[in-house]
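Summary of Year 1 activities. Much of the first year was spent building the evaluation harness for sequence design. The harness presents a backbone, in tokenized form, and records the residue chosen at every position. We chose the following record to illustrate the format because it has been used consistently in internal testing since the harness was completed.
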């Protein structure tokens, strides 16, 4: 599933939510945690898929009720997993390596990290091509 919203636009939409939904949503966007992981944080670590434990880079200070969190996100046009994808895309755009992405997101396959790095490279190439068109 492609992301059709920018990190900054998502952040603006999340700012319109009331707390605790806003706080949790912004924390998921910043940390890349899955919604289920937000409820398992202990000592700066989460238990992810397959029972793998990994460090969280950032904090989630408050959690919203599970029963209504996804519905509140939907009201602003977002899904919980979109926040994770936007975080990964943002890190790739800022220069994260495949190893960095695997560590942050708990991916066991480096191929997953390359999907986000490819998106970054495609974006750079599009910008370069646009700048060439402007010069002709």
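For this record, the design step produced the sequence shown next.
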């Amino acid at each position: 599933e492609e992301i059709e919203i920018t990190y900054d636009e998502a952040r603006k939409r999340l700012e319109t939510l009331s707390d605790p939904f806003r706080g949790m949503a912004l924390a998921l966007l910043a940390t890349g945690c899955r919604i289920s992981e937000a409820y398992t944080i202990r000592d700066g670590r989460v238990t992810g898929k397959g029972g793998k434990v990994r460090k969280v880079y950032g904090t989630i200070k408050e959690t919203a009720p599970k029963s209504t969190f996804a519905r509140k996100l939907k009201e602003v046009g977002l899904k919980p997993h979109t926040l994770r994808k936007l975080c990964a895309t943002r890190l790739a755009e800022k220069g994260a390596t495949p190893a960095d992405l695997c560590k942050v997101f708990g991916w066991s396959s480096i191929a997953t990290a390359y999907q986000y790095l490819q998106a970054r490279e495609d974006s750079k190439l599009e910008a370069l091509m646009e700048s060439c068109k402007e010069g002709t």
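The helical segments are 7-15, 21-31, 35-38, 66-75, 80-93, 98-105, 110-134. Quantitative recovery figures across the full test set are reported in Table 2.
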